[in-house]
Amino acid sequence: MQDIVIAIGGMSCAHCLNSVSKAVSQVTGVEIKSVRIGLAELRVTDTAATERVKAAIAGAGYDVRAVTGG
Hints:
Largest sheet: 4 strands, antiparallel
Radius of gyration: 10 Å
CATH architecture: 2-Layer Sandwich
Number of domains: 1
Distance between the termini: 8 Å
Number of helices: 2
């Protein structure tokens, strides 16, 4: 397990938080530590889980700007 922080563009309200949280929660191998406007702190099982999270966030309509940690 590794902790990562993802900077997310396009988030501005509670609806955005819910959309990102829902998208991330459906990804296998990911535990949500916190989701705030512009930032998600997660625990992932491996690099593949990180890539799936990035795809889920993009699929929800938001921009993955940076990933740190792991």
